[in-house]
Design a protein that fits this description.
It is a single chain. The chain is an alpha+beta fold. It is globular. A 3-stranded antiparallel β-sheet has the order 2-1-3, covered by helices on one side. The relative contact order is 0.25. The protein contains 1 helix and 3 strands.
């Protein structure tokens, strides 16, 4: 329904074509265009965690991979 926004039932991997549930947050930024306080997030499944992290790291982007925690968890 238009105008009704809900949390997704699951978070899916950001790798193109991957329907798997994500378990990781890959936090990154492009220092040439993003200020230090701007952080972008890709989600990754176990299979694509290394691929997505390495893709960003190869471009010399600051990148961190952390577990994706459930909403409300600390």
């Amino acid at each position: 329904m238009i105008g009704l926004f809900q949390e997704p039932a699951q978070f899916t991997c950001s790798r193109a074509g991957c329907p798997a549930t994500a378990g990781w947050r890959i936090e990154w930024r492009n220092p040439k265009i993003h200020p230090e306080d701007r952080v972008k997030v890709w989600l990754a499944c176990d299979e694509h965690r290394g691929y997505l992290h390495d893709f960003l790291a190869a471009r010399d982007f600051p990148v961190t991979t952390v577990p994706l925690s459930p909403k409300g968890a600390s």
